[in-house]
Write a structure and sequence with these properties.
Blueprint lengths: L3 H5 L2 H7 L2 H14 L1 H4 L4 H14 L8 H4 L3 H15 L2 H4 L4 H11 L5 H12 L10 H13 L1 H15 L26 H5 L1 E2 H14 L7 H8 L4 E2 L1 H10 L1 H7 L12 H12 L4 H7 L21 H22 L1
Antiparallel strand pairs: 1-2
Helix pairs in contact: 7-11, 9-10, 9-20, 10-11, 11-16, 12-14, 14-15
Main location: cytoplasm
InterPro entries: CSTPP1 (IPR038968)
Keywords: Cytoplasm, Cytoskeleton, Microtubule, Phosphoprotein
Length: 330
């Protein structure tokens, strides 16, 4: 059944809003790259399974970073896949930034290290980048940094202009060198640590949200975050966003923090798969560490259709991710 929102929009606006052409182009590219294999199943079945995987959010598994960040749905799907695959890590383990980056590369081999570093900085603030982080702290910081990355680049530029006393109403177009990673506060910059006035900061962000073409947090929730303080730093703002319950709900990719370690649907599927392996169930239930064993092998979310060239790509690059993990451990 079509939603009222769909009926209220012209066709071309709906297609653009849902990024349908992006998925059609990707589907056609995969069809052409794998036409010999797909000919055994039929083109109609291929398109059915491809768009089913898009709806289920499994289409982003083992894909290149440019595709993963191409649409808001892809970003939300990647966040959800990362949580579901590695949530068991968070039950007992604390990891470093590089270890979390290795986990991200298991799902996206060319995931950029810079994004992982920026997410870790939200958690660690002035601590060293090799400090340990809990899974929940990193995940919610990563969600904000990854999903709203372009918006945060613009916010960082606005923050810097406010610190330098520039007109806050000036339209700011950030460049690749004006991002938040370069402008991270240091202990020697007193003005950075003091922050900016929250009301003026919100005025600038409200204008930014009105004209920003990328995803941004709901302005009402941004106002709620800033209304509780008189002054704040840039990273203080990011921490507040990452911990805000309403922003997490509005994004819709992750459960509440209290439910982060629970995924009944996936747990049931894992139990079903484990039950099909002869001798495994008995050996698992016989020992006191029974509940921990599945957690040591993070599950991969299955995809109704995963083209063969992607599967080969993962196999070819698996050695690279292993080398990076070994390097982080040394």
């Amino acid at each position: 059944m079509l939603s009222p929102e769909r009926l209220a929009l012209p066709d071309y606006e709906y297609l653009a809003q849902r990024h349908v052409l992006t998925y059609m182009e990707d589907a056609v590219c995969q069809l052409l790259e794998n036409k010999e294999d797909i000919s055994q199943y039929g083109i109609a079945r291929f398109f059915t399974e491809y768009f089913n995987s898009v709806c289920q959010g499994t289409h982003i598994l083992f894909r290149e970073f440019s595709f993963i960040q191409a649409t808001p749905h892809n970003r939300a799907s990647f966040l959800r896949a990362f949580w579901r695959c590695f949530r068991t890590v968070g039950k007992n383990d604390l990891l470093t930034m590089r270890e979390y980056h290795c986990l991200l590369q298991l799902l996206c081999p060319d995931f950029p290290l810079e994004l992982t570093q920026k997410a870790a900085r939200i958690v660690l603030m002035d601590d060293a980048m090799d400090c340990l982080m809990s899974f929940s702290d990193f995940l919610f910081a990563f969600q904000i940094q990854f999903y709203y990355s372009e918006f945060l680049e613009s916010v960082a530029a606005i923050y810097q202009d406010l610190l330098s006393g520039k007109n806050p109403n000036t339209v700011i177009v950030p460049t690749s060198s004006s991002g938040q990673h370069r402008q991270r506060p240091t202990s020697g910059e007193a003005s950075m640590l003091e922050g900016v006035e929250a009301p003026l900061f919100y005025q600038c962000l409200e204008n930014l949200c009105d004209r920003h073409k990328y995803s941004c947090p709901p302005p009402a929730l941004v106002k709620e975050v800033l209304s509780n303080v008189q002054r704040l730093t840039f990273y203080g703002f990011l921490v507040a966003l990452s911990k805000h319950h309403g922003i997490n709900q509005a994004l819709g990719a992750l459960p509440d923090k209290g439910d982060l370690m629970h995924d009944p649907a996936l747990d049931e599927e894992l139990e079903r798969l484990l039950a099909q392996i002869p001798g495994l169930v008995n050996s698992v239930t016989a020992g006191p560490e029974a509940s921990c064993l599945p957690a040591r092998t993070p599950p991969r979310v299955g995809s109704p259709w995963r083209p063969l060239h992607h599967a080969r790509k993962v196999d070819a690059e698996s050695d690279g991710s292993t080398e990076e993990t070994d390097e982080s451990e040394t």
